[in-house]
Amino acid sequence: METMEIESGTDSSDSSVPLLNETSEMEFEINNKSALRKNYDQIKLDVPWVETQSIVSSEPSMIDDINNDVERELTFYKQALEATIEGRKKLMTSGIPFSRPDDYFAEMVKSDEHMSRIRRKLIDEEQGIKASEEARRQRELKKFERKGVEDTAVDDDFEIALDEAAAEDNNNRPKKLQKTGRNKKRVMKKRFAKSNTAESSGNIPIFDTKNIKKGLKNSNDSNSNPRLSKKKIIKSRPGKARRQKERKNKK
Predict the structure, then answer these.
(1) For residue 89, is it within any domain?
(2) At 25, is the secondary structure helix, strand, or coil?
(3) Within this chain, do residues 82 and 129 fall inside the same structural domain, yes or no?
(4) 88 and 39: one domain?
(5) pTM of the predicted model, to two decimals?
(6) How far apart are the first and last CA of the chain?
(7) 47 in a domain, yes or no?
(8) What is the pLDDT of residue 101?
(9) Where is it localised (predicted)?
């Protein structure tokens, strides 16, 4: 990396020194490979590869469109696959085992005593939940039973009130007249009050000869005897639309 040294005796007004408010035309190289390699050699540790297990990709990553997720993920996958194959070869060359044997038994992080306490706690929580649900169900049943008893009592009271009202109505109702003795004539008279008799059948004023003669005399006058008039005047009821119109006019 290039550096610029300023002597202490140099005047600040020298044109070779850029001021803060002036744009510097000097361009610095960002990816200075020679300087980076030099610094890397200085800080590098001389240790075996097993200690670092770092692998550099053989080909640089060239992604045309960094916003393309598929292309980017495919590049990462290729790098990881290459590093895995190369690292496996180096581990096998070094004689370092990295595969788990078939009879491998991994000890649990938590002891059996700790797991038994957790199991007991879970069982207690489950039993507590079941007990609370059962208690809630019993409360609901008691509530419905109490409501049913109250409804039954109300129904019984209502039926009693109906029976009492019916009894009062029966007491206030007049007794039916018996068809015996003096009441028999009254019952028969009331029963056949609207039946025809010989007298009522013969008493028909429309067939009286006097009325017929009088009707023939005044046959031109329809209002004198409506029954003898040839044409009856029937006032028809207006239609629905007309009735609604009349109601609106009245309002």
Answers:
(1) yes
(2) coil
(3) no
(4) yes
(5) 0.30
(6) 104
(7) yes
(8) 79
(9) Nucleus, Nucleolus
- State which amino acid sits at residue 34: S
User: Cβ(4)–Cβ(31) under 8 Å?
Assistant: no
Q: Do 48 and 88 reside in the same domain of the chain?
A: yes
Rounded Cα distance between 32 and 180, Å, is 141
Q: For the segment 160-173, what is each residue's pLDDT rounded down to a tens digit?
A: 666 666 666 555 55
d(Cα 139, Cα 133) in Å, to the nearest integer?
10
The answer to whether residues 69 and 35 touch, using CB atoms and an 8 Å cutoff, is no
Whether 39 is covered by a domain: the verdict is: yes
Listed residue (86, 94, 96, 81) closest to 54, CA to CA: 86
List, as own/partner pairs, every contact residues 219-227 make where C-beta atoms lie below 8 angstroms and the sequence separation is at least 24, other chains included. none
List the domain range (segments joined by +) for residue 74.
33-55+62-94
CB 98 within 8 A of CB 88: yes
The rounded radius of gyration (Å) of the Cα atoms in the chain is 61
- Find the DSSP H helices in the chain: 33-43, 49-52, 69-94, 112-172, 182-191, 198-202, 209-217, 240-250
Taking the CA atoms of 198, 204, 210 and 216 in sequence, report the sign of the dihedral they define: negative
Evaluate whether residue 114 is within a structural domain. Answer: no
Of the residues 104, 139, 171, the one at which a domain ends: 171
| pLDDT band per the 50, 70, 90 thresholds, residue 197 | confident
Q: In Å, how far are 144, 145, 148, 231 from 141, measured between CA atoms?
A: 5, 6, 10, 80
CA angle 24–30–33, rounded 5-degree value = 140
Task: Tally the domains of the chain.
Answer: 2
Average pLDDT, the chain: 73
The pair of three-digit structure tokens given for residue 246, joined into one six-digit string = 């009349």
